[in-house]
Amino acid sequence: MDTIVELQRQLVEYTTSLYNEGFLDDQFNQLQQLQDESNPDFVVEVVSLFFEDSERLLNELANSLEQQSLDFKRVDAHVHQLKGSSSRCLKCLQHVKHEYSLVKSKLETLFKLEQQFLAAGGTIPMP
């Protein structure tokens, strides 16, 4: 029983910190509300699809920006009104990649804590 209490404390603290740091917001709450007993992994599945799509997009952007002759029409298809020189774009892309990695890491940690809590017999209340 102490394990469940400790895991619940960790889960609540970590989730609260993600909201306070701006990694989670009302859209995440809305996503959680769509999850039910018939699809208990809905949020994890949606976020996993987001990660896959984002990684693909970031790789396509990186490839486009690394070309000697930039095809700005192609880059613009991925980001709206891309401006500045290619070096500035590469710097911005690196920043986006860093932010993406940070969000991915934090959400993966959240889902692992939830899994441990559920495996220990806890239940997560719907928001």
TrEMBL record:
Primary residence: cytoplasm
Top-level taxonomic group: Eukaryota
UniProt GO molecular function: histidine phosphotransfer kinase activity; protein histidine kinase binding
Subcellular location: Cytoplasm, Cytosol; Nucleus
InterPro entries in UniProt: AHP1-5/YPD1, HPT_dom_sf, Sig_transdc_His_kin_Hpt_dom
The UniProt record lists the keyword Repeat: no
Pfam entry (one): Hpt
Record has Transferase as a keyword: no
GO biological process, one term: phosphorelay signal transduction system
Record key words, sorted: Cytokinin signaling pathway, Two-component regulatory system
Domain remarks in the Swiss-Prot or TrEMBL record: Histidine-containing phosphotransfer domain (HPt) contains an active histidine that mediates the phosphotransfer.
Function according to Swiss-Prot or TrEMBL: Functions as a two-component phosphorelay mediators between cytokinin sensor histidine kinases and response regulators (B-type ARRs). Plays an important role in propagating cytokinin signal transduction.
Protein name according to UniProt: Histidine-containing phosphotransfer protein
